Amino acid sequence: MTEDGGMQRLAVFGAGVMGVGITTLAIGRGVPVVLVDVDRTRLDTARARVRSELRLAHMTGALPRTGPVGDLELADSVTAAADATWVIEAVTEVAEVKAKVHREIASVVAPGTLRVTNTSSIPVDELAGEVPSPEDLAGIHFMNPPYLIGTLEVIRGPRTGERAMSAVEALLSTLGRKGIVVGDGPGFVTSRVLHRMINDAANVVEEGRATVEDVDALMEGCLGHPTGPLRTADLIGIDNLVDSLSVLHERTGDDSYRPSELLLRKVAEGDHGRKTGRGFYTYGAR
Hints:
The chain has 286 residues and is of the alpha/beta class.
């Protein structure tokens, strides 16, 4: 419940892989969600995709089988988020697109409403400089799939206010997630470390030194990586990974973040990972 006794409600912008995953997590925890996307084709399939993800989350025990399930509303207009308790933007990893969406959100929500950018690499303060009320903006890096991974990276930008950080804490408590607060900057902690490793792994394969399977087996068996970097790339989405690497390369000037030619080729060929059925590995229908 909100402070005035109303029902807490989450608005999620973007009905892609991450938006659907975040929506699944929220409704699986009993939180009503309005999922907003201007792409009617993607929005028309969103309910079925959320239903499929929720079924999988229940089967794996990632979300409780019993207890309330939040209502899901679909909308193609920003005004649907006007009464939201919290807003999460989960659109493509392009700073200009994210800033545009946040300006639209800020124009309809009540002052003081938490606005979250779900980003793996774009500095929060870069967005804060382009939007109204930057004190209401914070970053949360949800991992894929959001309902399965219980620890999240929370990014506090230099202009993020105490009220926003308290709202982040309340949101994550409601979602049953643990947040670790880190400082702002390109890639934060997880992407800065992980994406370089994945990029290097792809370069090793491109150079012919080892197969995809052997790279992952070595990283799992020798270094304890739970899935291997290239299987992780498939889970992230290779297109999303390339977008994040490009942001890191542009913002840091570090050439180790320049996207591997193998990654770029897979994106061009439509082999984006699990979501397209083929990436470094091939996946059957769920």
